[in-house]
Write a structure and sequence with these properties.
heterodimer; A: about 325 residues; alpha/beta; 2-enoyl-CoA Hydratase, Chain A, domain 1; 8-stranded mixed β-sheet; B: about 280 residues; 11 helices; 10 strands; globular; binds zinc ion
């Protein structure tokens, strides 16, 4: 079933009315209906403009979570050729919330990792709603180290509500798995690019995000806490998530202003879920530009710049 | 006379002044009523059940550092409000007034059993010792200074996690501190992480779990997600002792559990193994 977001409903209604008029016009063409169609088309574009050019942070969060939004494995097919999945952390198991493997983008061979969500209950059982266990983070690091060894750039696609807060995850030290990645990614001697394609949920997102370039899709979000979690703390009520989304400055535009990310990748009108192919074209172009910029840098330069990039994050005053 | 009265702590601002004589405190673990002065004398460990009460950074330093050896660094860093988060700076100011600290971590040079270390102590009283820009910066500078001065860095963690009020900037402190530890590690210099009650969230998922050696105080809570969140997410009962130091040691995260009375001595022993040349000098 197609998911319709609350704020898109007027658009969907207009679009349905248009379809109905077009159908009638096909059966029995008339000048009157043709005029009505033209009017309604104008209305549709006006509505589209009104809604999509003034998206609130909370509306973007909803787009970022849209179940028809392209996921990591969709982009693996649409932006890459020859994705060859490699499984397992070599110790405990294979985490299907964090696929990874070799892939080729316009003739350039890379290591592709990322979080993968499911679209329905069955898929989400397999993908755990995109929330990885420690095994996922350890597999991701194994693949990144392999990329380093064989001189392949790394592309990480971030799309997770957060690392999984479960009993087994705690028992197998999920916090250490993330922390270890943060430290190790600072030392991996190959170009690395990450892109938040949907949800950038806190430590679970950052756990594959310590890279030379950090990009975000236009409607993705990246935050220290979910808007609902923040609302539960501040307002004692998750209903206040829209205000929390505003306060957290979690949208790509805000993060660009805060100098946290290096670029915003545009999405088709209304969001990537409206046109997977177009979304993938934009993403592919963004990734290629980033890889091109990094290709000429020596591992030593990459590591120094990567360190300095993350070292500079933070705002404070210091009295003399 | 308690150990905290005996040792002097330089440049720490206010001394303890809020304890009237003869105050009784109820142990949250066993319910026993404890005489404040007796508790202080026993390093704020319950004399009945060994429950470790929270220590302030000042008390912790008095307990660990060789007498008069602690020199605070980066004392003048102060928080700003990068996101324009409602009421944030008011909150920070209130905690500054309440604790006498400028932020949730105190850092400095110290000696432990004669060995030079960089010490960072988080103080849970300050906004749940959450990590924002200042905490991340101070810990990063302490690590970088240890690398530069070729000595060990020891961090005592206690934290509710990354500080919500600074949003993504707080999250990025996890990468920043971990990056500094990568350099300390590459220089083959020791990092000892000591987990105290409670260590959770973004602090557990960054520097707190990256120690060459990870120690924990008895029964302290250590976790990534809060127990309530775990319970709600998994719809299942939590195993006994879930997320305690003992549980974490059983599951391989913690090298050993160290009672407060043995902490200084244990750190000294470890440092002599980790920096044998320094120890011999
Ligand atoms: Zn007790």
């Amino acid at each position: 079933m197609k998911q319709v977001l609350e704020f898109e409903k007027p658009l969907v209604k207009t679009s349905e009315e248009l379809d109905e008029l077009r159908r009638r016009n096909n059966v029995k063409p008339s000048e009157k209906i043709a005029l009505q169609i033209a009017e309604l088309e104008k209305k549709f574009h006006r509505l589209q403009d009104e809604i999509y050019s003034h998206l609130t942070p909370w509306q973007r969060v909803q787009i970022a979570r849209h179940t028809q939004r392209p996921y990591m494995l969709d982009y693996a097919k649409l932006c890459f050729e020859d994705f060859m999945e490699l499984h397992g952390d070599r110790h405990i198991g294979d985490d299907n919330a964090m696929p990874g493997g070799f892939a080729t983008i316009d003739g350039r061979r890379v290591m592709l990792i990322g979080q993968q969500k499911g679209r329905d209950t069955k898929e989400n059982l397999l993908r755990n709603f995109g929330s990885a266990h420690p095994e996922g983070y350890r597999k991701a690091l194994r693949l990144m180290r392999m990329a380093e060894k064989f001189s392949l750039p790394v592309i990480a696609m971030i799309d997770t509500p957060g690392a999984f807060p479960g009993i087994g995850a705690e028992e197998r030290n999920i916090a250490e798995a993330i922390a270890f990645n943060l430290r190790e990614m600072m030392t991996i001697r190959t170009p690395m690019v990450s892109v938040v394609i949907g949800e950038g949920g806190s430590g679970g997102a950052l756990g594959i995000g310590v890279t030379d370039r950090v990009l975000m899709l236009e409607n993705a979000y990246y935050s220290v806490i979910s808007p609902e979690g923040c609302a539960a703390i501040l307002w004692k009520d998750r209903k206040h998530a829209p205000e929390a989304a505003e306060a957290l400055k979690l949208s790509a535009q805000h993060l660009m202003e805060l100098n946290i990310i290096d670029g915003i990748i545009p999405e088709p009108a209304g969001g990537a879920h409206h046109d997977h192919t177009a979304a993938a074209q934009y993403l592919k172009a963004g990734l290629q530009t980033a890889l091109d910029e990094l290709a000429s840098q020596s591992p030593k330069q990459l590591l120094a710049k990567r360190y300095n990039k993350f070292r500079a994050f933070g705002q404070f005053t210091e009295a003399a | 006379m308690g150990i905290f009265n005996k040792r002097s702590v330089a440049d720490l601002g206010e001394k303890k002044k809020d304890m009237p004589e003869g105050l009784w405190i109820k142990c949250p673990s066993c319910g026993e009523s404890l005489y404040e002065q007796a508790l202080a004398k026993n390093l704020r460990v319950c004399t009945h059940c060994q429950h470790h009460f929270t220590l302030s950074a000042e008390e912790r330093i008095a307990l660990l550092a060789d007498e008069g050896s602690f020199e605070e660094i980066d004392a003048k860093l102060d928080s700003v409000n990068p996101l324009g988060f409602k009421d944030y700076l008011g909150k920070v100011k209130a905690y500054q007034a309440k604790t006498g600290l400028t932020e949730a971590v105190l850092t400095g040079r110290a000696k432990i059993e004669g060995l030079p270390v960089l010490l960072a102590i988080m103080d849970f009283r300050f906004l749940g010792a959450s990590m924002g820009s200042v905490v991340g910066e101070k810990i990063t500078r302490a690590i970088e200074m240890a690398t530069k001065e070729k000595c060990a860095v020891i961090v005592f963690s206690a934290s509710g996690g990354a500080r919500m009020h600074e949003g993504i900037l707080s999250l990025m402190q996890m990468a920043k501190t971990s990056g500094a530890l990568a350099r300390q590690s590459e220089a083959r210099l020791p990092y000892i992480s000591v987990l105290t009650h409670p260590t959770t969230g973004g602090v557990t998922a960054s520097f707190a779990t990256l120690g060459d050696i990870i120690l924990a105080e008895p029964k302290c809570m250590i976790g990534f997600a809060g127990p309530r969140v775990v319970k709600e997410t998994t719809h299942s009962d939590l195993p006994p002792g879930f997320q305690t130091a003992e549980f974490m040691m059983e599951h391989g995260l913690v090298d050993t559990i160290v009672p407060r009375s043995e902490m200084r001595n244990t750190l000294g022993r470890l440092l002599r193994y980790l920096l044998p040349n320094r120890a011999a000098a």
